C-alpha cells in the first residue's frame, strides 16, 4: 500500500514540483528532471496527440507538470503503467484543480493506448 512517505511517491512529487518550477523559466534545472527536459519534445508531442483539444499553453501549469512527469515515466521506464497513472491522479487530486484528476487520467490513458499500438 502506498503512503505519502513512500520514497517512490516522494521522488515523483519532487519531479512534479521541479517541473512546475521549470515552467516559470527557472534558470536552473533540478537534477531530477534533466532527462525529462532532454525528452520534452517527445513528451509534449505525446500529450498533444492525446489531448488535441487542449494546446499545451492552455493546460494548467501544475497539470502540465504532472502530465510531463507521468508521460516521461510511461514512455521511458518499466514501472507498471497502472502505478504511474494512479500516482499522477493522486497528485492531481491533491495539487490540481477540481477536474484535474479526470483530465490527467484520460490523457494518460490515451497515451498508454497510443504507446501499445
Describe the protein's architecture and organization:
The chain is mainly α. Helices cover 68% and strands 0% of the residues. It has six helices and no strands. The protein has helices at 7-22, 34-38, 40-50, 61-76, 81-95, 100-116. Helix 1 (7-22) packs across helix 4, helix 3 packs across helix 4 and helix 4 (61-76) runs parallel beside helix 6. The longest helix has 17 residues, at 100-116. It is globular and about 30 Å long. The N and C termini lie far apart (31 Å). The relative contact order is 0.15.
Compile the SSE list and pairings.
Elements: H1 7-22, H2 34-38, H3 40-50, H4 61-76, H5 81-95, H6 100-116
Helix pairs in contact: 1-4, 3-4, 3-6, 4-5, 4-6, 5-6
Q: Would you identify the regions where 5 or more consecutive residues have pLDDT less than 50? A: none
Strand-pairing-aware structural class: mainly alpha
Integer-rounded radius of gyration: 13 Å
| Overall 3D shape | globular
Number of helices: 6
Helix share bin = 55-70%
Percent strand equals under 5%
Distance between the termini: 31 Å
Number of strands: 0
What can be said about the biggest beta sheet?
none
H/E topology pattern: HHHHHH
On the 0 to 100 scale, the average pLDDT is: 90
